[in-house]
Sequence to fold (61 residues):
Amino acid sequence: MFRPLAAVAVLTLMAAPAAAAPCKDPRTGKFAKCPPAKPVKCKNIKGQFVKCGTPGARPIG
Fold:
């Protein structure tokens, strides 16, 4: 009865450090400030810049 509960508890404890991994320096192992996320720009079919929530908008790379 308690074995599945223990497995869930172990997996939960192991998942917490994995969430912080992107902001960790791989060489030193220390935590660093995360780089800012790039804003997503979108264009419509005509090639005009539009908000990404509008119908027909596609993100550009």
Remarks:
- The first strand starts at residue 42 and ends at 43.
- The radius of gyration is 21 Å.
- The beta strands are 42-43, 49-50, 58-59.
